Amino acid sequence: MRVRQEHWNLLLDVCEKNPEVISNKFNGPDGKAKGHELWQNVTHKLNSLGFGEKNKEDWRRALIDWKCKTKAKASKIKQEIVKTGGGPANYVPLSDAEKRLLSLMGTKSVQGDDVCEMGVGQVSTS
């Protein structure tokens, strides 16, 4: 089954209310059980939209794959914008859903952090 925009929008709504779904880190003594229950509920909601069904693991994998593809697309856009050579940048912009996903994930994975690297000084060989 192919994931449709309706699925992504619903998944993003759930992730905005439950940010741990994006990171897949459910903390606390009952974190694993809470995560299992949350994904069961999410799976039920997504499957109730119609268009076919997936199990819990397939929906988790779909989210992981979408996160990876969106980060790669955003990184490519950034590279395209800053590259030299003249002429306009040539890229397909992020969709609204992809922008929402990046805002939930954090853009540090695409843009990097603002920490200046000190590097290693030159080593004398004499």
TrEMBL record:
Superkingdom per UniProt: Eukaryota
Database matches in Pfam families: Myb_DNA-bind_5
Keyword Transcription assigned: yes
Keyword Endoplasmic reticulum annotated: no
GO CC annotations on file: nucleus
Known role: Involved in transvection phenomena (= synapsis-dependent gene expression), where the synaptic pairing of chromosomes carrying genes with which zeste interacts influences the expression of these genes. Zeste binds to DNA and stimulates transcription from a nearby promoter.
PANTHER family: AGAP001331-PA-RELATED (PTHR23098), REGULATORY PROTEIN ZESTE (PTHR23098:SF16)
Subunit structure and binding partners: Self-associates forming complexes of several hundred monomers.
Protein name (record): Regulatory protein zeste
Source species of the chain: Acanthoscelides obtectus
